Amino acid sequence: MKKSLLLLMTLVIVLTMGLAGCGSKSADPPPANTQGNEGTKEAEPPKEEPEKVEPFEMTIRHTQVAESSKNRLKILQDVAKKTEEEVPGLTLKLDGVQDAVNRNEKLRGEMAAGNPPEIFDTFGRFDAYLYYKEGKMLDITPIIEELGIKDKFFDLKSWTSDDGKVYGLPVGGSAEAFFYNKEYFEQKGLKVPTTFEELEDLLAKIKADGKVPIAAASQASWVPLMMTNQLWARYAGPEITAGFASGKTKWDDPNMIKAWAKHKEWVDKGYFKKGELALDYADMTTQFTTGEAVMMFEGTWRSSIFKKAEEGQEPNMAEDMRDKVGFFNMPPLAGGPGDQTALMQDMNNGYGFSAEVAKDERKLNAVKVFIKNLYNEEMQLRGFKEDGVLPSMKVDEQKYQELATEPIMKEITGTLSKVQSSFNAFDALVQPSVRTEVETQIQKLIGGQATAEDALAAIQKAQDVAIETGQ
After folding, report:
1. Domain count, the chain
2. CA–CA separation, 256 vs 233, rounded Å?
3. For the segment 135-188, what is each residue's pLDDT rounded down to a tens digit?
4. Where are the alpha helices (DSSP H) in 50-104?
5. In Å, how far from its chain's centre is CA 32?
6. Which of 399, 396, 394 is CA-nearest to residue 149?
7. Which of 230, 226, 168 is nearest to 392 (CA)?
8. DSSP states of 299-344 as a string?
9. Do residues 58 and 90 touch, judged by C-beta distance below 8 A?
């Protein structure tokens, strides 16, 4: 009996050891000691799968479609790329449309249909403000307050509602005056005019020499109106335009009639290229850069074509004129009312944002990132350096002056430093319907289909209607 019990216990022990041996062989071997006496290396935790992000697309409507705007377009492209990198899933589509078409046709139609791009090029009052009042534009006040940039702009009046809400931001500033061919002036012994009388004498001398005194292209009516606006600031005073929308001042004021009559007089004397109504904006620049025209009344934004291109970039279209271009303000009119040094200088062109963006948290965040990337000192200075756009934001004065190394930028900053005051362009101060009538009448004036009196009477009639209807 004892022998049987002993054999049974021995069998149990053997079976137990066998099972233990089998268990050891089936288990994973211990990790190899790769660190010597420092111990074994711990197994790495399993990698987490990256979180899937749903892609989404937004559109940026811009107007940088001309060759002369290539530098500004490059800045926008860089901002869009950086924004895409910072916003997961975002693709930004850049949609380029000619400026007048976007402003007067495409954007108006999209706003009426309720499907504007998420981000779009626009103008402040009265364009953007009307869209904002209709609930079509995003109130970006909370965004710029969060980013800490609300107080960094020189002037947001054109982008602020009556109750203090900001609905858009100016991308830069501009001023309008005469570009002139310094080489021609030197060859002919001509001087920059200091009085209006001297300006008219200069125009007559250039015409007598067989040259076009002032480059012109009036197919787009806003182009000749740059100079007309400056003429009526001399004849009727720089403050008169601010009162048109309310009825405080009148378009058919006798001094306004004198200004428009002066423009027509210059047309009749051949101071502009014949057939200007059939010529587009780009042709005006060509007249000046080829030497056909000696002067060009233009905005400071055009200065970029005369600057030396950055290393690795294609030459600018008029880079060979880099040292031959000057810039001067329209001289004062003897006995003219108001500040006779004033010139058009505003910050009325920029970007607005669709109110629909507020319904999508990711799109709203993308707008905030876009604003952060575009509206900062670096981009303001880059726009000034590469494209000649005056800053719309307060920047370091020393950095700003250090960048004004190009001859044309020195000419521009020198001219602006002598200006005592400035005024907004008329189209920022009147209702869209009135602006349309002004554009129609200036072309009728140039084409000989209306006198100054008739043109301004028609504009005043449109202004009266706009005031009465509130549109």
Report:
1. 2
2. 9
3. 999 999 999 999 999 999 998 988 999 899 999 999 999 999 999 999 999 999
4. 70-86, 99-101
5. 65
6. 394
7. 168
8. EGGGGGGGSPPPTTSPPPTTGGGTTTEEEEPPPPPTT-SS-TT-EE
9. yes
Six-digit token pair at 116?
């504007």
Find tokens 């079976």 and name the residue: 15
- Do 74 and 198 have their domain in common? no
Task: Give the residue from 274, 197, 259 showing the smallest Cα distance to 228.
Answer: 259
Q: How many other C-beta atoms are found inside a 10 Å radius of the C-beta of residue 49?
A: 6
Q: The pTM is what?
A: 0.82
Contacts 24+ apart (CB under 8 A), 158-161: 158/123, 158/124, 158/125, 158/128, 158/346, 158/347, 158/348, 158/424, 158/428, 159/124, 159/128, 159/350, 161/129, 161/132, 161/133
Residue 246 sits in the same domain as residue 389: no
Contact call for residues 445 and 452 (beta carbons, < 8 A): yes
Which among 428, 425, 410 is positioned nearest to 176, based on CA atoms? 425
For residue range 272-316, what is the model confidence (pLDDT) as tens digits? 999 999 999 999 999 999 999 999 999 999 998 998 877 777 788
Domain membership of residue 330 as a residue range: 175-345+414-469
Question: The CATH number of the domain where 184 resides is what?
Answer: 3.40.190.10
